[in-house]
């Protein structure tokens, strides 16, 4: 099976279908020493906006890692795997706390994962401005 790289704003139909299916994903963020921090997360993919979104608590390590990267954002990757199919999205991550951005991320999460996240005042969204899409989906 070949690995395919594609424009994250114009994915192929099978790639987009795979990202609409319900799968647990991973988020890889850089620790201050440069080593990778990999955690399981729910991710939504919005090719039109060229964004991937992860909802989380503002006190999480992943948020701390993104914030530590500074105003240029952290270089991160999200990935999902199902058997021999896999898909990775890469880009620059930023922590957003604006209510409308968090609400949009929650809406998309509820749509993909078929469950509404419980209300949480400390919730933020990690928005990943996508630069690359790879995979075999």
**Sequence of secondary-structure elements:** EHEEEEHEEHE
Number of distinct beta strands: 8
Proportion of strand residues: 35-45%
Judged by helices, strands and strand pairing, the structural class is alpha+beta
The unreliable regions are none
Main β sheet profile: 8 strands, antiparallel
User: Portion of residues in helices?
Assistant: 10-25%
Instruction: Report the top-level CATH class.
Output: Mainly Beta
What is the domain total for the residues?
1
Question: What does the secondary structure layout of this molecule look like, with pairings?
Answer:
Layout lengths: L3 E3 L6 H8 L4 E6 L5 E6 L2 E3 L4 E7 L3 H8 L5 E9 L2 E12 L2 H15 L9 E14 L1
Antiparallel strand pairs: 1-8, 2-3, 2-6, 4-5, 5-8, 6-7, 7-8
Task: Give a quick rundown of the structure.
With 137 residues, this protein is α+β, with helices and mostly antiparallel strands.
């Amino acid at each position: 099976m070949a690995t395919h790289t594609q424009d994250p704003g114009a994915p192929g139909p099978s790639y987009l279908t795979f990202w609409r299916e319900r799968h647990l994903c991973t988020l890889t963020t850089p620790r201050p020493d440069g080593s990778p921090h990999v955690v399981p997360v729910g991710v939504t993919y919005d090719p039109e906006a060229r964004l991937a979104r992860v909802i989380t608590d503002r006190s999480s390590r992943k948020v701390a890692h993104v914030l530590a990267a500074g105003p240029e954002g952290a270089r991160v990757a999200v990935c999902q795997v199902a058997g021999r199919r896999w898909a990775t999205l890469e880009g620059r991550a930023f922590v957003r706390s604006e209510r409308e951005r968090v609400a949009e991320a929650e809406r998309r999460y509820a749509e993909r994962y078929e469950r509404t996240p419980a209300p949480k005042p400390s919730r933020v969204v990690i928005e990943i401005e996508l630069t690359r899409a790879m995979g075999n989906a």
